[in-house]
């Protein structure tokens, strides 16, 4: 009986989500452009030609995506793909690796699978594009936008209306802090100290973004890292979440939310920051009505041509660490339109894009430095 109730709950949620999305996919976008920074939760193809093992441009990845495997680490759309649709964009934001021409005026996706805030994160997988390098790529794009709009002032006004989405930090734990055999960070820092070090580095990167025109920011917190199928299998917890991996993520989220308050006070007139909490107060046994939440739909590392599950909408996880499109759809809807300050703080994305921004700072010197 409980399983039947959960199945109907998922069906109702997905029907509602599909109808909700349809309201926004037609018409003018709510912001002129969207810039995406992050890791495999947002990557749409930037890793495809990099010398790294962190790739997903092969089947069964993309099995439910219209264009097939593209480098997205899920079966269909990522959460930011769906947010892009909710914002009214006609097309998904292209990856930096494939960007050309006037497409830059709609935005760029810089996210790189396995990337972290720290440059050494995931170095064992090969070369990935850390957050700092993603910002360097963004400076190049901003310079091109300034050229296309025939001047710094016009570019500054244009960029102030855009949305900047930052979803990164998971790999700084999964492919760094939680792997003492390869990285020394867990011997150097306590969980509290490590979270603070990450937040300080993230803060510097956000200030750089501000210096080159960013004014509306979405900062996404970490999920429950100890509730991924990978963590559950590695620690042999018989389906239960791993508390020692969840606790550091929650410390990071607490500090990230505090950073949002700090920046909103610091830049009260000319910038707005929001925090998105993806932990959802759920555990691996009872996750948003999903029938299966502690094993992946695509097993065995989701190797090329692996046969995934058929009932993908009932699974919370696509592979050992990445959510299914069904999970992404729920997270995206909540991020975009939520009346719960525990999930989006101090407002949701829908309200953020409606905020009026006063331009006060000039970033001519920043563009000159990156040219």
TrEMBL record:
UniProt-listed Gene3D superfamilies: SGNH hydrolase (3.40.50.1110)
Highest taxon of source: Eukaryota
Any single GO BP term: lipid catabolic process
CDD domains according to UniProt: SGNH_plant_lipase_like (cd01837)
GO annotation, cellular component aspect: extracellular region
Primary localization class, coarse: secreted
Protein location: Secreted
UniProt signal peptide: 1-27
Pfam families membership: Lipase_GDSL (PF00657)
EC top class named in words: hydrolase
GO MF term set: triacylglycerol lipase activity
UniProt EC number: 3.1.1.3
UniProt entry keywords in alphabetical sequence: Hydrolase, Lipid degradation, Lipid metabolism, Secreted, Signal
UniProt keyword annotation of Lipid metabolism present: yes
The keyword Phosphoprotein is annotated on this UniProt entry: no
Similarity-based family: Belongs to the 'GDSL' lipolytic enzyme family.
UniProt-recorded name of the protein: GDSL-like lipase/acylhydrolase
């Amino acid at each position: 009986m409980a399983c039947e109730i959960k199945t109907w709950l998922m069906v109702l949620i997905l029907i509602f989500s599909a109808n909700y999305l349809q309201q926004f996919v037609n018409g003018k976008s709510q912001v002129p452009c969207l810039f995406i920074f992050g890791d495999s939760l947002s990557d749409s193809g930037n890793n495809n030609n990099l010398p790294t093992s962190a790739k997903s441009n092969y089947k069964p990845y993309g099995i439910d995506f219209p264009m097939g495997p593209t480098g997205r680490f899920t079966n269909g759309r990522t959460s930011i793909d769906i947010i892009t649709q909710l914002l009214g964009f006609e097309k998904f934001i292209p990856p930096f690796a494939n960007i050309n021409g006037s497409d830059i005026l709609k935005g760029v996706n810089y996210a790189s699978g396995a990337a972290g805030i720290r440059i050494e994160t995931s170095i064992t997988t090969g070369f990935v594009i850390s957050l700092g390098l993603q910002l360097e790529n963004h400076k190049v794009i901003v310079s091109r936008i300034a050229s296309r709009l025939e001047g710094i002032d016009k570019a500054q006004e244009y960029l102030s209306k855009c949305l900047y989405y930052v979803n990164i930090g998971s790999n700084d734990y999964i492919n760094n802090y939680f792997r003492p055999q390869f990285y020394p960070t867990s011997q150097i820092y306590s969980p509290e100290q490590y979270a603070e070090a990450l937040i300080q580095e993230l803060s510097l990167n956000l200030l750089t973004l501000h210096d080159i025109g960013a004014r509306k920011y979405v900062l996404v917190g970490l999920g429950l890292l100890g509730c991924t199928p990978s963590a559950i299998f590695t620690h042999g917890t018989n389906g239960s979440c791993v508390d020692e991996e969840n606790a550091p993520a929650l410390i990071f989220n607490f500090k990230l939310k505090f950073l949002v308050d700090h920046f909103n006070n610091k830049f009260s007139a000319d910038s707005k920051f929001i925090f998105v909490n993806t932990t959802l107060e759920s555990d691996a046994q009872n996750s948003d009505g999903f029938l299966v939440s502690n094993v992946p739909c695509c097993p065995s590392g989701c190797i090329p041509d692996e046969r995934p599950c058929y009932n993908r909408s009932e699974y919370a996880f696509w592979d050992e660490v990445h959510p299914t499109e069904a999970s992404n759809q729920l997270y995206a809807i909540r991020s975009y339109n939520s009346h719960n300050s525990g999930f989006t703080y101090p407002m949701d994305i829908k309200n953020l894009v409606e905020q009026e921004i006063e331009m006060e700072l000039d970033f001519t010197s920043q563009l000159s430095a990156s040219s």
